[in-house]
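Service request form, structural biology core

Requester: graduate student, group of Dr. S.
Request type: structure prediction, single chain
Budget code: on file
Notes: please return the result as structure tokens.

Sequence provided:
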Amino acid sequence: MSAIIKRYFEAFNAKDIPAMLECLSDDVAHHVNEGTVRRGKPAFGAFCAHMARCYDETLTDMVIFEAPSQGRAAAEYTVNGTYLATDTGLPAAHGQRYKLSAGSFFDVAEDKITRVTTRYNLSDWIAQVSGSDGT
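Core staff response, request fulfilled:
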């Protein structure tokens, strides 16, 4: 099961949205941080396109955990990013760099990801891109 999760994150870091979509079931449930659930590959692809326009991110320090008998996995990682374009309701973008701890949780069935849930500290991200992170 960890192979599909590794492929998903390798595709993410390669900025290869079609390869990410290949890892997903057609009816994937995408639970985004601070957002609503998006269902299906088209919604996931649209989200990825939006994110690629606003953010340039690479994930490092990846650790994957899995419970194959339950069809579940999780990953903890560091998000290394640059804020490229202002996202709705968030501070103005002007190339700010940020670094966050984050995690994703997955359901997997028939070698496809059926649920992706991502969590990170939005307040920390806002502080970093607003210049109030103490650095």
